[in-house]
Design goal:
2 domains, 8-stranded mixed β-sheet, two-stranded antiparallel ribbon, globular
Length: about 260
């Protein structure tokens, strides 16, 4: 399956690049290479891309991919930008939000001397990073027509070195992320899917936010957001306190019989 996905990804990337060439596009346009590649990876039929959907009232929206009664929206960040689409699409269609997560990064910096040799980022992407984005569309998470597809993939990231204008400046501008290899694909459609994902971590029977952060390798802030989301979705539940910290456990209703 990994080999099949690798071949599909390579073909999709070639299609994405060739489409830009046909349109005589110079550089990287608003629809980024990663986004466009995943669009072809999920569906190579261009007739299913950017499909016009009439709104209930006046106006139209465009679905990234529409296959029969199923819509796929590819979103690399800013899930809050999907609220209008979710409000309309979920009334009629099954909707899957596709969230690519860079798993390994090869970073190429471009400075005044040109392209520098790549460096491997020490950070690895993690599936639960999606929770920070899920929080932004929390009110839709329990809708039966909504699901998610997390795609963890290796990317080459090109950065243009820039002048640091203030101390919080990163000192670079990300130009493009080029997908190279798919590490894992995770579907989150039912509460049991979320439960099974959490079971892959070494969580104790009862755990605090700090325990959760340690087991999942999330920052304390991101762990808190994840537990907030999972509590709202009834994936986990509060069962008391340990000192000043809330205690959680996996929700009993989602446990395997």
């Amino acid at each position: 399956m990994v080999d099949d996905n690798q071949h599909k990804l390579e073909v999709a990337y070639d299609q994405a690049i060739s489409t830009d060439a046909k349109q005589q596009v110079i550089g990287i346009q608003k629809e980024k290479v990663l986004h466009k590649t995943l669009k072809y990876f999920l569906c190579d039929n261009e007739d299913c891309h950017e499909v016009k959907i009439a709104k209930t009232n006046k106006g139209v929206l465009y679905a990234d991919i529409k296959i029969d009664n199923h819509i796929y929206e590819i979103q690399t960040r800013n899930f809050n930008a999907l609220r209008e689409k979710l409000e309309e699409f979920l009334k009629t269609y099954q909707v899957t939000i596709v969230y690519p997560i860079p798993y390994r990064k090869q970073i190429y910096k471009i400075d005044h001397e040109g392209l520098q040799p790549p460096k491997t980022s020490p950070k690895k992407g993690r599936p639960l990073e999606v929770c920070y984005e899920l929080y932004k569309i929390k009110s839709y998470l329990n809708h039966p027509n909504l699901s998610f597809l997390l795609i963890l993939l290796d990317v080459d990231e090109y950065r243009q070195v820039t002048e640091k204008k203030h101390y919080r400046s990163s000192g670079y501008e990300r130009i493009v992320q080029i997908p190279k290899r798919i590490e894992q694909m995770i579907t989150l459609s039912t509460k049991m899917d979320y439960h099974c994902l959490l079971k892959t971590y070494a969580l104790p029977e009862a755990f605090t936010s700090s325990d959760f952060a340690k087991a999942t390798h999330l920052t304390q802030k991101k762990a808190g957001v994840a537990l907030h989301v999972f509590t709202y979705m009834h994936i986990v539940e509060r069962i008391g306190k340990r000192g000043r910290s809330y205690l959680y456990q996996l929700s009993l209703e989602n446990r395997e019989k």
